[in-house]
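Two proteins follow. First one:
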Amino acid sequence: MKAKRLISWGLSALLLLGATGCVDQHPEEAVQTGTGSTRIVATSPAVVEIMEKLALDLVGVPSSTLSETPERYQDATVVGTAMSPDMEILKSLHPDWVLSPSSLQSDLQPKYETIGVNSAFLNLKSVPGMYKSIQQLGEQFGREEQAQALVQEFETFYEEYQSKNADRDKPRVLVLMGLPGSYIVATENSYVGSLVKLAGGVNVYEGETEEFLTANTEDMQKRDPDIILRTAHALPDDVMEMFKEEFETNDIWKHFRAVQEGRVYDLSYDKFGMSARFNYPEALDELQPLLYGEE
């Protein structure tokens, strides 16, 4: 599969631009005014990374304990966490656009509407989705050249990468996303699931439309995964300790073939989060021996 086709791989509405509230009922005019006069806030570290790559200025950035704010944005106002930005601070910045991941749209868009700011939601649920969003941002903010360079970088990488596992048997994978005190199944529509798919793995919940599912362990066992991957939504140390206890104390896990064969692996939190990042090649490198064994 060519990378250009991969970028549109089962994805639509990758960047959702819309005027929310009454600040500006003509968002296309605001975007086309150029970067110098356009006030933009990015509310997640993944979006900040994209804006830096596109050489776009920001007046607001998120707080994060796991990633550093790029030097370019050291003077930007901190607006709170990705999942819970401070609406009063956002409003005080008078942004033309607030950019957030589409995974948080249902929660954040009503709040943005309440304070009357324009918002855009980027699809960062997969690497192709990220690059499609980059293309659209480049078009909207006059950064076509930078966007095309990034897309070309991905195409070059993937054209080389796609043949790596083409002739190998595709392992069937169960992906568990842990939260403090619980866990859910990550489908191929989630970011971690999309990485498994890029690497050639088959999600045992293939064909589902949601990013995450609540499934019982009996159903998981019936799907007979070759491999079980575990990652964390937040508080990775606590979550991995939870997984360890769950697999040691819940008897059903000992009946999973993947457990019996010792093919249960914990993924790095910094590479397998909720949103696509530019460190996806490192994530794929981490998956390679887990899915196919040591080279």
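Second one, unrelated to the first:
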Amino acid sequence: MAVQLPTLELESELFAGGVRFVIGCDEVGRGAMAGPVSVGMAVIDAQSGTFPDGLRDSKLLSEKRREALAPLAAAWVLHSAVGEASAAEVDQFGITACLGLAGKRALLALHESGADVAASVVLLDGSQDWLNPALASPLRVQTRVKADRDCASVAAASVIAKVHRDRQMIAAHAAHPAYGWEGNKGYGSPAHMAAIVEHGATPLHRVSWIKSEAH
């Protein structure tokens, strides 16, 4: 089965319609048992040109390929940022609210780097706009199922966010080696779940999720 390659087709349609900037947006770590939920954003305009060869949705790439592509993706886009919400915040506010919180933080970082957020359309992977409920001033958001697969700006955001979060979990593995985060990146692998039973939760675990799994 051939792998679906991303294009700039949707982004080009938006530019042709008068949009100045497109912000590709994707989340990473939504279903993890430990670690933050992270939202990546990547800004392009009509002059951004050809995206890096081999760019794909991060889920379709090996860890080695993602590591190689992340700096190329960051160099291709005008601005990029990753916002996060912690495991404790996920426990307190719930995952959907924390997607919005992480997205809000990514937008703030984009603004601080000089991106014209107000003149942008956010191209959001999925069918649900979880971003605008977190914002005081709503943005124009266009959702697209499998945008991380089909749209190059969102694929870039996906790779940048995935590498950023994976590096955090690999670093955290050194302090908590029993949970295997170097390999599972905080997701609920059998070995990870068995380690939680044996050693208990760490401050990086989503305790409410562990309790849910236990029932």
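SUMMARY FIELD: The radius of gyration is 17 Å. The longest helix spans residues 152-175.
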